[in-house]
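Replying to the earlier thread about multi-chain prediction with a worked example.

Input:
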Amino acid sequence: MFPIYKKELQSFFYTPFAYAIAALFMLLFTYIFGVAIGGMDSSNTLKFSFTEIFYNVTLYFIFLLPILTMRTFADERKFGTEVLLMTSPVSVLKIVIAKFLANMTVYIFMLAGTLVYPIITAINGEVVISQLICAYIGIFSWGMMFITLGMLISSFTENSSIAAIIGEIIMFGVLFLDDFANTAFISQYPKLQSVLYAFAAQPRFAYFSQGFIRLSDLVFFASATIVFLVWTYISIEKRRWKRG
Amino acid sequence: MITIENLTKYYGSNRAVNDISFTINDNEILGFLGPNGAGKSTTMNMIAGYLPMSGGKVTICGDDITENPVKAKRNIGYLPEIPPVYPDMKVREYLDFCAGLKGIKGKEKKSEMERVMALLKIADVQHKLIRNLSKGYKQRVGFAQALLGNPKFLILDEPTVGLDPNQVVEVRSIIKDLKKEHSVIFSSHILSEVSAVCDRVVIINKGDIRAIDTIENLEKSFNDSSVLHVKCAGSKAAAAAIIGVTEGVAEIMEAVDEGNNITSFTVKLSGNAEQTQEKLMADCLKNQVTVLEIYTDKPNLEKVFTELINRPVQKKSMDELLNEIVPEKTDSTENEDAESEEKEENE
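Result:
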């Protein structure tokens, strides 16, 4: 398992890929941070809440995560290296987990960069550490779910660009699931609304960014991650059986 | 030993491999011959554990590839048709990764990498990106990967495709050397290659096994000894007269004048080829006709191959199929079986 993890990390960090995606993320984060600071009114200091930036940043993040995950399985198929992995004495589940861990490592690398902003804020103002930790736990679990979703989509195709585009469409849909559930049309069907709401990730993430850690939210993200990982495993196995 | 029993693969309703069984013995090179689309790669993918089978069983050193895949795969080195290399990796990095995948660690890993790189002569490109290598080098890097960890069995799917003639010769000699420690299954559609390298061949077409035997036996069974070629010096008419009356000669099919008083005869035989040959030589000697050359049609694998491939599959009758299902045979069905077998032999 470890060699696959190492190889994946090499493919991210020996190429400009990880740095480019982290830089782009920092750029977006800086923009939102700057706008928030710039819009701050001196008469109302509460207006700037650092953790809310995390909530806003997810909208941009959703375009980056599929780019991170698009190559995970699509490229293995494209280059025919899937055969190598499948005929090696490593089980498919271990391959999936190794790749997941590698993607998460890059994700943590991206998040680590954002620690600069709380430090800047702390120098010039006050940071509520407990709330900050909550926000980081939140964005970590939120990202974990979307990364596994991206991996799943990557396992469907051998074209990484298609994996990225489909990933963006689906993740965008998931991101706005609660807004969609709140529309007047869906409100006509309260049962459907409650079902859609149960699957919406954003309201759960909002709790984290407000400084709440709720067990139900943690369970939601963890179970979604597990479901997507198992689904990825099944998708790979299924294709092997069907493959022509 | 690898045992393959009743291996079958369906792609949808399309049957790619049909109920094939054979074994690969230790220290043996088994050639896997067939035209394109015969099911060679599918079979190899199934043996290596990449594709699941629709039916049947593959056992590698006693481990079933579907029931105990991790253990079974430890004994296999596989080079697929397209070498499974990462274009963005350097050769050394790639081999390091593959060695890790196979669970080779520490010092052993390093020595294994050095060994395979030396064996396939890729040490000079070890710090190059794989994407910048030529097709031949990529193939060799893929081959090196299969050899890592010294697996007992090597499955090589068309390992010489895309190599230049020099490299082909090198790779063939490497495969021959591998026989000392490994068993090799080796697919190809190049017949000269198979006859140069393999101990036994499996000939497969459209998913069916057409023959499993040593090359010599196959060639013998298809040896066309009913035609004799004779080249004589001297008068054409005199030679024809002698040949024509020799015992065992049915007729002279062709007599070609080659100039300088030399004639080539193609003779159809009615009797035993060797005896006729002896008699003919003796007769010619007696009558002062010099025989320059005399031979029967040489058997060759190409002929065997085309004949086997083009031969229609012997379809089993409904009775035969029923007999296979019903374990207890009556006397009458046994007789029928024997008759049908006789018929098949006659054909």
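Chain B has 13 helices and 14 strands.

Feel free to reuse this layout for your own posts.
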